[in-house]
Design a protein that fits this description.
The complex is a heterodimer of chains A (607) and B (336). Chain A is mainly alpha-helical and 607 residues long. In chain A, helix 14 (463-481) packs antiparallel against helix 16. In chain A, strand 1 (272-273) and strand 2 (276-277) form a beta hairpin. Chain A has helices at 27-32, 37-67, 76-86, 94-130, 138-157, 188-217, 230-261, 285-319, 326-339, 355-383, 392-415, 417-423, 427-457, 463-481, 484-489, 509-539; strands spanning 272-273, 276-277. Chain A is 60% helix and 1% strand. Chain B is α+β, with helices and mostly antiparallel strands and 336 residues long. Chain B has 2 domains: 16-115, no CATH class; 165-335, Cupredoxins -  blue copper proteins (Immunoglobulin-like, Sandwich), CATH 2.60.40.420. Chain B is built from 6 helices and 10 strands. Chain B has helices at 2-30, 40-68, 79-112, 128-156, 268-274, 306-315, and strands at residues 165-172, 175-180, 214-217, 219-223, 228-234, 239-243, 248-252, 258-262, 282-286, 299-304. The relative contact order of chain B is 0.12. Classes of the chains: A mainly alpha (607), B alpha+beta (336). Bound molecules: protoporphyrin IX containing FE and copper (II) ion (2 copies).
Chain lengths: 607, 336
């Protein structure tokens, strides 16, 4: 185990007055170009919240269109948000509808649930929970944030270009995304999308490498791999997935940039558009899909694993019990991580890919369900005979387990290639991935914010507002996405601007209205969160050292933000992270820093 | 002016909420309580909510099933579709069971074990037997699912019989064209370089196989109980030929020919009776985002009896041989 003497890196961060030493520091180095993991974590979080609000507003706009717009209703709100060009007289333009779903998906998947989730919590928790003074490289960490920032800025800016932002769906399949003649959004908007995503990949790689190195090298004395909290395992595996798969997205994007601007034909062949044939021959749109989903599938676990990791921690702390099956949890995350690289073809069963290849992907995909099931059972068993403390974070974590199951089971249907034939690209898929990935990850992110707010901002959030926020969010989330299964089973394709162009779906209109009402209620409930969050940053009551009676290291360093994280020596670890309600102890938790008693068994070791 | 009022109202709202919060917090500080600490009353309240959420959630799910089960797609109108529906229902039974058991346990435990002041949790870090159990049971169930699924998949995607009737589905922004292979049941060659206003599919008029081919738009006919093979092409971007009533779908990819085949088993007339809807039509929809009118790119499919179909066929005239050919012979692709 390496002791960490990395005191020198990271800018000084003088938040509290209890700092034991003082460096000269400017506003710029402290708040802007900070190399301190705690500040970078907050920067990621605030940026992600901004992006999430943008993406959420977009979803309310297209839900208005889906429920009432297509029936001829006009909305001043649509006109107000989209202007006369895209929302003339309160009626949404069909191209703008596609642009909205595209950017909504892109922002939510990449900027909120990848950049925001990993960026906030890997940054905050890795150094804290492994007992390090900061990330391995504070400088690269700072770069990671600023690449993310510029990338977010470009994505946001793309909303304002003349012909609208990228509109080919968040998966940007060419040729639609390659040809400006095919859809207006494939002009400058798509250029910005590609540049933004390329910078995003750079940010993800810089961050990911740092996380991996920090976990491997900077664990404090006594912190063996099998004593790491599951959060850290989740962040580690997530970072490895990202480092192995994001470069493929970059190549995927670079080839598309070449096709768009330099006349190559990696993805294009035999196309006639806008009254003339293109020169491109020999390329394959299917190649793009292979490259995209080679990242795309690991990506969904990059989104989910950090949330699961945080839920493991929060559920254990608040059940006052060790997480059930600690090693099985690690094993299943490793299995999920490995398998997630060999299942991408399940997004391509009916793209013209060889059916035999499809069969192989059916097999590997359904294998993933096994470790996923193990995790679900282990969470449930952790609650069993617990003494459950319903903090807002705990509520969100339980919600996460529920959505993880409810969305996961429909994956079994989709993974069955034969069954996927009629439901691929319908609302059933929309329901599946929003529940299993969107909801689980966003609930996990909220759980993380409520739980670690005291470490992020040194204050406490309001509990009652947290409860209200959870219950409205959770109920409306299911009310939004559960009915979509039926739309899918009725054969409603996704990405339709209107379902009334022909009569087949007329008797399903009431589902769309129900869903839109629930979505708007859910969106309004987020105001409770935003208020609670920003209010508490400035005026919340000061946080005590260990508000949730946790065992992990981040709760052992006093109440301020300290440069180097621990005022004196780094803490030494003597036990695993889950000694809750251990028989024979005076308190119902034993911090990792407390030495084992004579003859005491470390819970991390199997007996 | 209105904008200004709206903004001021929002601003005032935020200020009011902030002040209200402040008052509540000061009040609780005066009472000496820390309002973020979790009391037994909080646990009880949220535990009960967990219970009631479970009840409502399950009722909501069942209610949705009952409400919508008759509004979903009508009975499958192809041999393959019937098999898929059976498989789908079989899988649904399994996942409903898993969904109900796990969700109920989750919320039930949350309620039953809500924190009490004097309670102590049960220290229970692991149990190998249990973990082996819930690794192997899912594995066995999944094995069954995989075997049944792959069996259907291989039959449905098996190469078509060469005697099947061949119809080409040609996609472009934003409509479909069906090209019938004529009496020789072989499609003429084509090249995207041949596309003109009068030759929208780019067929090779000089190819003798083209001579008997014909195209239709708006709707196309197929006879009942005869397998058909569709060859699917696209002119510009990816589209997807989606025929929900037959439970069939395949992408249309520029530069490639993709295939699917099925055997329709219910005529359009009969389906109008089954669904009790005189306006019912089988549809070919586009199911891959393809541009502004993606949502409005469909074609009707008419399933006829053999006699009706023959009568319809007789009325169709070859309509492609007049198209002028201008492309290099080398660029023309076999219609096969
Ligand atoms: C039991 C585990 C799971 C299985 C068997 C499974 C299977 C599948 C399959 C086969 C598809 C493709 C469906 C289609 O396009 O027709 C799919 C879509 C998707 N899944 Fe899952 N899934 C599982 C869990 C997850 C998890 C845990 C996540 C995220 C954390 C996830 C995220 C997604 C996303 C984002 C898509 C849709 C992408 C798109 O087309 O836009 N899935 N899933
Ligand atoms: Cu996937
Ligand atoms: Cu289309």
């Amino acid at each position: 185990m390496s002791d960490n003497h990395g005191h020198g890196h990271g800018e000084h961060h003088g938040h509290g007055h209890d700092d034991h030493h003082h460096h000269q520091e400017t506003f710029i180095t402290k708040y802007v170009f900070s190399q301190d993991h705690k500040m970078i974590s907050r920067q990621f979080l605030i940026t992600a919240i901004f992006m999430a609000v943008v993406a959420m507003l977009m979803s309310t706009l297209f839900r208005l269109q889906l429920a009432w717009g297509e029936a001829g209703e006009k909305f001043a709100f649509i006109n107000y948000m989209l202007g006369d060009k895209w929302g003339k007289d309160g009626v949404m333009d069909p191209n703008m509808y596609l642009a909205l779903v595209t950017i909504h998906g892109t922002i939510m998947v990449f900027f909120v649930l990848t950049g925001g989730l990993s960026g906030t919590f890997s940054n905050l928790l890795i150094p804290y929970q492994v007992g390090a003074r900061d990330m391995a490289s504070g400088f690269l960490n700072m770069l990671s944030y600023w690449f993310f920032f510029v990338s977010s800025l470009l994505m946001f800016a793309s909303l304002f270009v003349e012909n609208g932002p990228a509109s080919a769906g968040w998966t940007v399949y060419p040729p639609l995304s390659a040809l400006a003649e095919a859809i207006p959004g494939s002009g400058a908007g798509m250029d910005l999308w590609l540049i933004s995503m390329s910078l995003f990949v750079v940010s993800a790689l810089l961050g990911g490498l740092n996380y991996i190195i920090t976990v491997i090298n900077l664990r404090t004395k006594g912190m063996s791999m099998t004593r790491l909290p599951l959060t850290i395992w989740a962040f580690l595996i997530t970072a490895i997935l990202g480092v192995l798969s994001f470069p493929v997205l970059l190549s995927c994007a670079v080839l598309l940039i070449m096709d768009r601007t330099f006349g190559t034909s990696f993805y294009l062949s035999d196309i006639f558009i806008n009254g003339h044939p293109l020169d491109a021959t020999g390329g394959s749109p299917v190649l793009f899909q292979h490259l995209f989903w080679f990242l795309g599938h690991p990506e969904v676990y990059i989104v989910l694993l950090p949330a699961l990791g945080m839920a493991s921690e929060i559920i254990a702390v608040n059940s006052r019990k060790p997480i059930f099956g600690y090693r099985a949890m690690i094993g299943s995350m490793l299995a999920i991580g490995f398998l997630s690289f060999i299942v991408w073809g399940h997004h391509m069963f009916i793209t013209g890919m060889n059916p035999f290849l499809g069969s192989v992907f059916v097999f590997t995909t359904l294998l993933i369900a096994i470790p996923s099931a193990v995790k679900a059972f282990n969470y449930i068993t952790t609650l069993w005979k617990g003494n459950i403390q319903f903090t807002p974070a705990m509520l969100f974590s339980i919600g996460l387990v529920s959505t993880f199951i409810s969305g996961g089971v429909t994956g079994i249907i989709l993974a069955d290639s034969a069954l996927d034939i009629p439901i691929h690209d319908t609302y059933f898929v929309v329901a599946h991935f929003h529940i299993v990935m969107g909801l689980s990850a966003i609930l996990g992110m909220f759980a993380g914010v409520y739980h670690w707010f005291p470490k992020l901002f040194l204050r406490m959030m309001n509990k009652k507002l947290g409860y209200a926020h959870f219950w409205i969010t959770f109920a409306s989330a299911y009310a939004v996405f559960f009915p979509m299964h039926f739309l899918g089973l009725a054969g409603v394709p996704r990405r339709y601007y209107s379902n009334t162009a022909f009569p087949i779906f007329d008797n399903l209109m009431d589902i769309n209205e129900f869903v839109s009402v629930a979505a708007i209620i859910g969106a309004i409930a987020q105001l409770i969160f935003l208020f609670n969050f920003f209010y508490s940053i400035f005026r919340g009551p000061k946080a005590p050292e260990n508000p949730w009676n946790s065992t992990t290291l981040e709760w052992t360093n006093g109440v301020g933000h300290i440069h180097g994280n621990w005022a004196g020596k780094l803490p030494v670890v003597h036990r695993w992270a889950y000694d809750y309600s251990k028989p024979g102890k005076s308190k119902d938790f034993v911090p990792q820093t407390v030495p084992l008693e004579d003859g005491e068994h470390d819970g991390g070791e199997h007996d | 002016m209105i904008k200004f009022l709206v903004y001021s109202a929002i601003l005032l709202g935020i200020i009011a909420a902030t002040q209200l919060m402040r008052v509540f917090e000061l009040a609780s500080e005066l009472k000496g309580t820390r309002h973020y600490e979790i009391k037994e009353a909080d646990n009880r309240r949220n535990g009960k909510l967990m219970f009631w959420f479970m009840v409502t959630f399950m009722l909501f799910c069942f209610w949705q099933v009952i409400k919508y089960k008759d509004k979903l797609l009508p009975v499958a109108a192809s041999i393959e579709g019937v098999e898929l529906d059976w498989l789908l229902n079989f899988n649904f039974i399994i996942i409903w069971v898993v969904f109900i058991i796990t969700n109920v346990l989750l919320f039930w435990f949350s309620y039953k074990y809500y924190g009490r002041d004097n309670a102590v949790a049960h220290y229970y870090p692991h149990n190998n037997k249990l973990e082996i159990l819930w690794t192997t049971v899912p594995a066995v169930v999944l094995a069954v699912i995989i075997i049944l699924g792959l069996k259907s998949w291989t039959t449905i995607t098996a190469p078509a019989d060469p005697n099947m009737r061949i119809i080409e589905l040609y996609a472009k922004q934003f409509d479909w064209t069906a090209r019938y292979a004529g009496t020789d049941n072989t499609l003429g060659g084509f090249s995207y370089k041949l596309i003109t206003a009068s030759n929208p599919l780019g067929v090779d008029a000089n190819d003798p196989k083209t001579a008997d081919d014909f195209t239709v738009k708006g709707e196309f006919h197929i006879p009942i109980n005869q397998p058909v093979e569709f060859k699917i092409r696209s002119r510009d971007v990816i589209h997807s030929a989606y025929m929900p009533h037959f439970r069939q779908q395949m992408n249309a990819v520029p530069g490639m020919i993709t295939f699917l085949h099925f055997t329709p088993t219910i005529t359009s007339k009969r389906m109008k009776e089954i669904t009790n809807n005189p306006n019912f039509e089988y549809l070919l929809l586009c199911n891959k985002i393809c541009g502004a009118s993606h949502y409005n790119m469909q074609m009707n499919i008419i399933v006829d009896t053999q006699e009706e179909f023959d009568a319809w066929l007789k009325k169709q005239k070859p309509n492609l041989s007049a198209a002028p050919a201008t492309a290099d012979a080398a660029e023309i692709k076999e219609g096969k």
